[in-house]
Amino acid sequence: MHELTATIAKILGVKAPPVRIDSQAKYGAMARGDGAIYLRFPRPGYREKIWDHAAGCIVIQEAGGVVVDAAGKPLDFSRGRYLDVEKGIIATNAKLMPLLLNAVQAALKEEKTVLKAGSL
């Protein structure tokens, strides 16, 4: 999935290297202003667990940010222990979200095209 995040960074013109941190720390860092974009694209078949994202989502939202799945839908924590998200989770501020969402969807489309071409 690192190729996907690299493609998104390229589309957005991001030059800074990604910072990889675990757990809820990523959400705290974003809310504090230490980062502008959070991308989470787990391996195929992995199901995100609500406890890995619920508190962090609230922290981001309280700081004025937005957390959605890769299709732009809000995360739904009411369905039990798993989040059934579209491909991944993204977070940023409200101003950047439309641009980030467009870049994510373009990168996912490009990835799908490459995978399809590779299977021919």
Description:
- The chain is an alpha+beta fold.
- Helices cover 42% and strands 15% of the residues.
- The protein is built from 4 helices and 5 strands, in the order ααββαβββα.
- The protein has helices spanning 2-12, 25-32, 54-62, 97-118; strands at residues 37-40, 48-49, 65-69, 82-83, 89-93.
- The strands form 2 sheets. Strands 1-5-3 form a 3-stranded antiparallel beta sheet, sandwiched between helices. It has a two-stranded antiparallel sheet with strand order 2-4.
- Helix 1 (2-12) crosses helix 4 (97-118) and helix 2 runs parallel beside helix 3 (54-62).
- It is globular, with a radius of gyration of 14 Å.
- The model has no long low-confidence stretch (mean pLDDT 91).
Short structural summary:
This protein has 120 residues and is an alpha+beta fold.
Properties at a glance:
120 residues, 3-stranded antiparallel sheet, two-stranded antiparallel ribbon, 4 helices, 15% strand
Topology of this protein?
Layout: H1 2-12, H2 25-32, E1 37-40, E2 48-49, H3 54-62, E3 65-69, E4 82-83, E5 89-93, H4 97-118
Antiparallel strand pairs: 1-5, 2-4, 3-5
Helix pairs in contact: 1-4, 2-3
Low-confidence stretches: none
Number of helices: 4
Alpha carbon gap, first and last residue: 21 Å
Mean pLDDT: 91
Number of strands: 5
Question: What's the shape?
Answer: globular
Please give the share of residues in helix. 40-55%
